[in-house]
Amino acid sequence: MALKKSELYSSLWASCDELRGGMDASQYKDYVLVFLFIKYISDKYADQKYAPITIPKGASFADMVALKGKPDIGDQINKKVIGPLAKENKLSDMPDFDDSAKLGSGKEKVDRLTNLIAIFENPALDFSKNRADGDDILGDAYEYLMRHFATESGKSKGQFYTPAEVSRIMAQILNIANAKVTTDTTVYDPTCGSGSLLLKVGEAAKIKPTLYGQEKDSATSSLARMNMFLHNNPTALITQGNTIADPKFLNGNNLKQFDYIVANPPFSDKRWSTGIDPSSDPFGRFATFGIPPAKQGDYAYLLHIVRSLKSTGIGACILPHGVLFRGNAEGDIRKNLITKNGCYIKGIIGLPANLFYGTGIPACIIVIDKKEAFARKGIFMIDASQGYMKDGPKNRLRDQDIHKIVDIFNNQIEFPKYSRFVPLSEIEKNDYNLNLPRYIDSQVTEDQQDIEAHLKGGIPKADIDALAKYWDICPKIKTSLFKEIRPGYFKLTVDKSEIKSAIFGHHEFKNFIASMNSHFEEWKIKTAKALKKLEVHFHPKDEIKKLSEDLLLHYENKPLIDAYDIYQHLMNYWATTLSDDFYLISADGWKANTYRIMEKDKKGKEKDKGWTCDLIPKNLIIAKYFSNEQANMDKVNANLELLTSQITEMEEEHGGEEGAFSELEKVNKANATARLKEIAKDKSAKEEAEILKKYIALCEEESELKKQVKELETALDEKTLNQYPKLKETDIKNLVVDDKWMATLDKDIHGELDRVSQTLTSRIKELAERYDSALPDLLKDVSLFELKVNKHLEKMGFLWN
């Protein structure tokens, strides 16, 4: 049976547990990824005659397995595996597997490395048939590991990784997926880190382009080379060196030029000019547009990109927001990029703060496009700073945020408070300051207070009209809820507590809900039919892309519903459940396999924790085939809860110092029975005895019901387990697609409709309460209260003037 992706991730992350303690994440990531690399190339290229990587004899993963438990395991891994691999494939700065300071000494080191090897022996980690179409489990597992490494590394050491969500945006706004790409098409990252951004762009293309990357840090550049192999890009060219001082990709004495360039350079690099004289740069990077400040290297990297792009090239670079508005030398460079040789800047995308692992400051993506520079009449700007979710200590872009940015940028759609095509004439008037707030007001409109409404009462017409999107769909609800009391001001026709029921009960709203339900039903029927046709070895990522795009399109321009919110519900479900289900079906077909849940206790002994089925949970089988048995058990459970409540009430009622249970050391059936025997012949304790008898009887009844519930649970569990082998493929498809997937999405999308009605209800109630009491009424109330207080004071002998 296929292993769930989520379990695979957990298994890989468990390998990190073996290394924690002796080093931080920025260090143990190197050990884990080297293991992953060796396992991958051993599975993928072992014994291949013309393999793109050389695996010396004795340096495969199988040879590492043979070292398990040996007292000199660390030294042997270095000498027999790591050393030869590094030498043959020009890999430098490989981690030391015999480092006692990091891995421990003696038995601790032996056990740690042995356990690490054992984790990678998992049969699910068989990469011999790894697909190269971006749908392989390895790629996702790598992203999972890199995100966790970057999160745990902290501010100072998390810069080796560009968040996958940002990489996806950059890959898609370059529009490489729709370009005529061949193997001669070139993609370059001058500050490639571990290669994640470069790889994302390569994966977006229909045909693999040739990838080029340069990284200053030696260990990270080796990691990038390994990652190219891990993602089936063995021909990628990764070099080590300082891109500004010593660029490695040259065409004679000039910089090599590329079709596409992406970069996430170090923010505000204060040492960018070390090793060069910018005024006489041999590659002419600063001659046309200007020299960046000595202590502010952001534009040095951007100008390197500009110089390295072909005349038809397009690039995207992540930089801090300061590059958009800082003056002096940077202001001159910014102006020159817009006015000299046409306008090189095609677009700017402002991102939320705290996205990146090396810094918490907000950043932007600057898109450079040389091809249409002279024809360009303006710059397309997006302020996406408000679209994100919290993810632990960092912010994170959701699928809907990514999709919205890409859709709006690629289609140049102007959206209020979000995006604008800003004419060059307007930018010139602002002295070429590109700070986004100058052009896009993304702030939430402040709620206005109406002074007349506070003085005289009534809800202002302007506030009611601001809810126009609701009245456009349900105009009669508006007239049924509000009545004009004077020109421009209205009062509610229903009590505030009845607003929700008035909206829900109105025939217009009922018709709206019915139409939206019908709209989803239409998509559900069509989609369920298609999903039931999925066969073994389908590509889950292709399927979810098709599914999600279809859902987004289905809800496009629907009233009161944001199509991207609907899309996000599907993507959330993909992340939690649908992904595992798709991969299980892709691997095994429509099979509902049950298995035992075995857990190890502290002593390492396995315990049976019951059984489960990943594809079809127990509750679906019970609801479909054993609803009567479940209803009967629910009834007994309800009786048990009622009885338990009665027992609790008795314990509280008679548990005081003078209560019937005051003599009991602990209130339970055993102690109550013992106490009853003690006072059996004591006539003065007759009342206490009656209470104890009633309590004991309730405890016995509770015990009997618990036994009954246990028997019913066991019987239902057995019936449920026995039902799985009886399921036909059609039954499995109906249960999974209709009762699991579609039922969940139906519930989530209904939640969006509830949110619509709740938002309208809350706003109307807020307005009603705000202007409920006019100032004269409040003054009258104050006067009455003052009169009452004065009377009380007078009675107490005080005179208040």
Characterization of the model:
The chain has 801 residues and is α/β, with parallel strands linked by helices. Among the domains are: 1-153, N6 adenine-specific DNA methyltransferase, N-terminal domain (Ferritin, Up-down Bundle); 162-440, Rossmann fold (3-Layer(aba) Sandwich); 617-726, no CATH class. It is built from 28 helices and 18 strands. The strands form five sheets. A nine-stranded mixed sheet has the order 3-2-1-6-7-9-8-10-13. A three-stranded antiparallel sheet has the order 14-16-15. Helix 1 (5-17) runs antiparallel to helix 6, helix 8 (164-173) runs parallel beside helix 13 and helix 22 runs antiparallel to helix 27. It starts with a helix and ends in a 6-residue tail after the last helix.
Question: Key features?
Answer:
801 residues, alpha/beta, Ferritin, Rossmann fold, 9-stranded mixed beta sheet, 3-stranded antiparallel beta sheet, 18 strands, globular
Supply the CATH superfamily name of the domain at 162-440.
Answer: Vaccinia Virus protein VP39
Say what the CATH topology of the domain at 162-440 is: Rossmann fold
* Overall 3D shape: globular
Task: Summarize the amount of helix as a percent range.
Answer: 40-55%
- By DSSP (H or I, 4+ residues per run), the number of helices equals 28
How do the strands of the widest beta sheet line up side by side? 3-2-1-6-7-9-8-10-13
- Main sheet overview: 9 strands, mixed
Classified by CATH, the class of the domain at 162-440 is Alpha Beta
Structural class from helices and strands?
Answer: alpha/beta
Beta-strand percentage range: 5-15%
- What's the count of strands? 18
For the termini, the CA-CA separation is 88 Å
CATH architecture of the domain at 162-440: 3-Layer(aba) Sandwich
How much is the radius of gyration in Å?
34 Å
Low-confidence stretches: none
InterPro entries: D12N6_MeTrfase_N, DNA_Adenine_Mtase, DNA_methylase_A-5, DNA_methylase_N6_adenine_CS, Restrct_endonuc_T1M, SAM-dependent_MTases_sf, T1MK-like_N_sf
EC number: 2.1.1.72
Catalytic activity: a 2'-deoxyadenosine in DNA + S-adenosyl-L-methionine = an N(6)-methyl-2'-deoxyadenosine in DNA + S-adenosyl-L-homocysteine + H(+)
Keywords: Coiled coil, Methyltransferase, Restriction system, S-adenosyl-L-methionine, Transferase
